[in-house]
Amino acid sequence: MTGNKEQNIEHKTRVIVIRHTNTGFHGVYFLGMADAPITRDGIEHARDIGEKLKGLKIDKMYSSCLKRSMMTAEEIARPHGLEVEHRKEFNEVDFGVMDGLTGEQVDGRYPGLMDERNKDKIHFKPPEGESQIEARDRVIPAFKRLFELHSGKTVIVVMHGVLMKLIFREVTGKTIKGAGEYIGFGCRMHYGKDGDGDIEFIKMENDVPSEGDKDWKPGKK
Hints:
Distance between the termini: 16 Å
Strand content: 5-15%
CATH superfamily: Phosphoglycerate mutase-like
Largest sheet: 6 strands, mixed
Structural class: alpha/beta
Order of helices and strands: EHEHEHHHEHEE
Helix content: 25-40%
CATH topology: Rossmann fold
CATH architecture: 3-Layer(aba) Sandwich
Mean pLDDT: 89
Oligomer: single chain
Strand order of the largest sheet: 3-2-4-1-5-6
CATH class: Alpha Beta
């Protein structure tokens, strides 16, 4: 998916939002604040992304404060010789008591909670956690500030899938599914801004067909 102003990308303030690479938790549905590291394949994938972006002049790198994001960012940053700044605003949604569990496990431990969530996923707030609305209200201002702090520069932020969906919806007014897209491990979403103009979605890049592709290898499409 590509915005219709991609040809002017060199003139923009550019923010590339990247999802962390593979954690190996394919069967764990709710992975929020549970602090899982990336796998060996995830490390290789992150290094491959760093090489793919080597031709860009990256001025600043951020990540969330969770291991899977920090480890991915460190590998991507290495070819660029950059330090990674960790920001809690970019942490994944806090799923509270559901964190680290499958939907089936949630049903077993907290009967009725999945039904409550499925009625309104955006506003649903799990016990000891946060709603997607609350997550949106912390990540969107932080995302927009990057364009002010780094005007005319190119910035990378490594974060998490739900937050990336929330940002995409804020900028485009569309859902990822509605746009016919998906956010796989290592997915890169490019945003740009000219002067006082609006933030634009430019393009999305995925290396794997789905996050369940545990056999990903460098160079695989």
